[in-house]
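ugh ok fine here u go
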Amino acid sequence: MSFLWIRNIGVEISLPKILGGEIIGYRLWKIGHKKLLSAAVHVEWEKNMERAACCHPGMANLILGYHAFKTKELLIDHYLPYMMSYDSQIIIGTVWMWGEVVEHRLGYRSEYVAIRSLDEYYNGVKKVNWGLQKYMLMKRLQKYYDVETSPSLLFPPECNSIE
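structure:
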């Protein structure tokens, strides 16, 4: 096993590091005016956002990284309930993760990330399976972030089997 060394105030901590392969994590975003917002910190996700920036003044060498869950089930069980409210709008999707990647019990933290897919939409406290509002929102976000979403996520099931 290899280790990633982090230096912080003269203390060295070793954390397990993933060395290769494609890493896909599951995360959620809040929906801002026209862009996706990180749920935990106030960061607007830009179109080609890849490298994590320092979020704390005075810690210029500390890269906090991007966080994502290992599975959609872990995200839904351990994070989604804390982010939902009656006026929230949430998107669940996947991200590609690379660079310095640290594995945690429920997920990963990586140096680089790119949005892979936008898969589910929650309005208030319920999942929206289909409808015009979801269709328009998902199409706008797909276009801005240049990602694809399966037609089955945009239309009701009976519309997906048109002969």
